[in-house]
Amino acid sequence: MTERSVIYLDNAATSPIREEVLNAMTQAMRSDYFNPSALYAPSAEISAEIRRIRSEICAALHAPEGEMYFTSGGTESNNTALFCTRKPKGSRIIVGMGEHDSVYAPANELKARGYDVRFVPIMRDGTIDAREFENLLDESVSLISVMHASNETGGINDIAALVKLAKKRAPKCVFHSDGVQAAGKIPVNLRALGVDMYSVSAHKIHGPKGIGALFIKKGVSAKPLLFGGGQEKGMRSGTENFPSIAAMREAIRIYIENEYATNYSKISKYRELFKARLTEIVSDIEIITPTHNSVPNILTVAFKDVRGEVLLHSLENYGIYVGIGSACSSHHESRFKSLLGLDDRHRDGVVRFSFSEENDLSEIDFVVDCIKRELEILTKYRRI
Q1: How far apart are the first and last CA of the chain?
Q2: What is the DSSP string of 98-142?
Q3: What's this model's pTM, rounded to 2 decimal places?
Q4: How far is CA 268 from its chain centroid?
Q5: Which of 338, 309, 307, 337 is nearest to 322 (CA)?
């Protein structure tokens, strides 16, 4: 076991900020505190730097011509995508059933407002059913939102194929993808994906909380969600959060320069060894995360005859922190579990382990041994 007192395996919920990212943020807070909208020279320099950062992030995501708007995070980006695109009243909106609540809840609100909202069923691995998706397409579709990678299972949707199909059957539709769990975990090429809008967030890749972005392709009509001083070209009013924007740039830069070449292989190796050890020592588990079509950092497992939340708290006593799904909603777990088709003895035992390059292979045996020990105790009490 590592000498660290905490073994953090819930990086899909949030990730610890990197030292280099924190330094960039602190430096901006100390020295670059000027309001970017003010007229004096230091403010103009910050405004110009924000434009450079915007261009750098677009380049990192291989974005086509369009705009990258900074937001407060994935939730605001997703809400903006769903509520602010122009769509005829009563038109059809297609959303994945397994979407994060920041897409699922706005979709239900749009349904209450009179739109024909249709939810696409998901497969066992958390990706949408492509056949059911195709069946819902017609010329009345104005908006589609399908996540790039599932925050629950790590399963990756074939967004490029879905976009191609959607544009053929509903040429006027706007296609949005929530990329919060994908960007920084797998290479993202927005030009190749063909999406009209794409959401990203910094705190999933060792950046600060409270900063994200929404890419909107040129030609897509959208109105502001927030009104005020006209920042972000009028799309998102409010004084720009430059320290967080600078920190987000640093987090993305580190991932581009290091993760794809070295750390991704380390995370993948950790996950596969963890899975092998877990299946070897713990019986009666269901592996939900697909091996080949998933982001490398997530492993979702269903344990038999135990509640995932109870196991979570049991492991917490050892300094091991895991997840049971989206940390943003206490209600989301039960909604998602019902979609997986698990039997009664596994349905309540869903646990998500999500890793980062900061995890060490020496932790694995300790974590798995703790899981085995606690399962023996918890299932014993359940039998009694």
Answers
A1: 33
A2: T--HHHHHHHHHHHHTT-EEEEEPB-TTS-B-HHHHHHT--TTEE
A3: 0.94
A4: 18
A5: 309
3-state secondary structure 229-297: CCCHHHCECCCCCHHHHHHHHHHHHHHHHHHHHHHHHHHHHHHHHHHHHHHHHCCCEEECCCCCCECCC
| DSSP β-ladder status, 285-287 and 298-303 | antiparallel
pLDDT per position as a tens digit, 186-197: 999 999 999 999
**pLDDT value, residue 328:** 59
| Domains parsed from the chain with CATH numbers | 7-16+262-383 (3.90.1150.10), 19-253 (3.40.640.10)
DSSP 155-191: BBP-HHHHHHHHHHH-TT-EEEEE-TTTBTTB---HH
Helix (H) or strand (E) holding 374: helix 364-383
What pLDDT is recorded for position 379? 81
Instruction: For CA atoms 107, 109, 110, 112, give the dihedral sign.
Output: positive
Digit-coded pLDDT (tens) for 73-124: 999 999 999 999 999 999 999 999 999 999 999 999 999 999 999 999 999 9
Torsion of CA 84, 13, 184, 221, to 10 degrees: 0
Residue 238: both structure tokens together: 């409010």
Residues forming beta bridges with residue 299, ordered by sequence position: 353
Query: Which residues are known catalytic residues?
Result: 328
With a cut of 50, which residues of the chain have pLDDT below it? Answer: 1-3, 331, 383-384
Phi, psi of 90, rounded to the nearest 5 degrees:
85, -5
